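During the no-cost extension, the postdoctoral fellow (Dr. R.K.) reprocessed legacy sequence entries with the updated structure-token encoder. One reprocessed record is reproduced below for audit purposes.
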Amino acid sequence: MTSTSARREPPTALVITHVRGLLRRGKLSPGQQLPPERELARRIGVSRPSVRAALRSLAAKGLLVTRHGAGTFVAAGPPMLDSEPLSLLATLHGFTRAEMFEARRTLEVGVAELAAARATGDGLAAIADAVTGMFAAVDDPQAFLVHDIRFHRAVAAASGNPILASLVEMVSALFYEQRRRTARRARRLQATADMHHQIYLAIRGRDSARAQHLMHEHLVRAEQEQEQETEPGGGA
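Re-encoded structure tokens follow.
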């Protein structure tokens, strides 16, 4: 019975289960690089696109980090809170887009201020790496979304407050699950990457007021753009 259920499990879910198992058994540790997609596909018996989709999902949930041109690594950032209770609440109560972005603004505008005051060299490097990934993925909306979320998590980690960083991690995981359904309709990805670059420059320049202002402006624009994506005829 168990083997039959496993065979019926979607390929992407098989990959996620495999990687989570490696993490639980200590076969993968924070900062360690995962095997190449081709090797994972061979081991699990699925296609490379299924592996790629699963790794993106795990990266969006904060378990993995994809570095452009280098590979996929186990995240070594702040502790990850379980997002399942929040996901269940979202399903039961139907969190609205407005509520989601209100929560994000409340958390992330303040986090940007703290990051501008406290970011270390490693923290700035992580933010810069996420920005680089966004510019490299302007023609791939799904990959762009993962780098976008990486950016916000990196800013939260740079705040130096592990509680805030973990809350942003949890909300980001929920946001990814909602956002990935319409990500392919995204427009203006170059402009979005430019805005994230401006936030990074404000943080690097220790300009807390500007970092706050730009983060707020970015999240307001993002909410407006995503509303357009979900309107009838808003995209294919």
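The longest strand covers residues 64-67. The chain is about 70% helix and 5% strand. The remaining legacy entries will be reprocessed before the final report is submitted.
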